[in-house]
Amino acid sequence: MTGDRSGATPGSDAVVVAQGTFDILHPGHLHYLRDAKAMGDRLVVIVARSTNVTHKESPVVPGPQRREMVAGLDPVDEARLGHPEDIFAPIEELDPAVIALGYDQHHDAEAIRAALADRGIDCEVRRATAHQPDYEGLLSSGQIVDRILDERG
Ligand SMILES: Cc1cc2nc3c(=O)[nH]c(=O)nc-3n(C[C@H](O)[C@H](O)[C@H](O)COP(=O)(O)O)c2cc1C
Ligand SMILES: Nc1ncnc2c1ncn2[C@@H]1O[C@H](COP(=O)(O)OP(=O)(O)OP(=O)(O)O)[C@@H](O)[C@H]1O
Questions:
Q1: What's the ipTM?
Q2: Where does the Cytidyltransferase-like domain lie (predicted)?
Q3: Nearest CA to ligand 2 atom 6
């Protein structure tokens, strides 16, 4: 991992947590998860419960299926469905060294740091980079759905 972590046990694997909806997978997701994995040793992905995706259209693909696909990606050591109510419950259990936010995730890093401090969780909050391929891609689940509706609807 790149940063120091005061609470980490010497020699222990530094856990990184990534999170998101991952409705229809695309290379942007892969880039994010590779970026997150490079921030530590072991990558655990929390896949959002459909009921908690309130800031945009609800996912098309059921949560257990989204989780299974994310679990199969090469940087991912473990993928689990998130907690239905308390997004910090899995964080308390996993005790990660780093939470990697996606480049465009609506969550405010400072607010997350404050919530972690309230709960006494010692964890760095970092932001991953955007994927910028050298081709014109469809790097958003929402854009893929829109394209399907436009061209096949
Ligand atoms: C640190 C952190 C932990 C989260 N844990 C959960 C969780 O346990 N359950 C859940 O349904 N969503 C959880 N989420 C929220 C979802 O991942 C959130 O809806 C996510 O940002 C999905 O939106 P996106 O795909 O647009 O990024 C968490 C988010 C963060 C930042
Ligand atoms: N093009 C991309 N480059 C880097 N990271 C990405 C890209 N697209 C999505 N991600 C990251 O993947 C995670 C999961 O994102 P999410 O499932 O919301 O993808 P999305 O395709 O952007 O969805 P939507 O189009 O519905 O908003 C988030 O942390 C997000 O920042």
A1: 0.95
A2: 18-141
A3: 28
Blockwise average pLDDT, block size 10, the chain, 153 residues: 45 90 98 98 98 94 98 98 97 97 95 96 97 96 96 91
Nearest atom in ligand 2 to 142's CA: 25
Please report, for residues 33, 132, 134, 141, 149, the alpha-carbon distance to residue 137 in angstroms, rounded to integers and kept in the order given.
Answer: 18, 9, 9, 12, 17
Query: Which atom, in ligand 2's list, is nearest to the CA of 29?
Result: 12
Of residues 101, 87, 84, the one with CA closest to residue 49: 84
Walk me through the domains of the chain, giving residue ranges and CATH numbers: 15-152 (3.40.50.620)
Which amino acid, 73?
Answer: L
Q: Tell me the pTM.
A: 0.93
**β-pair partners for 124:** 98
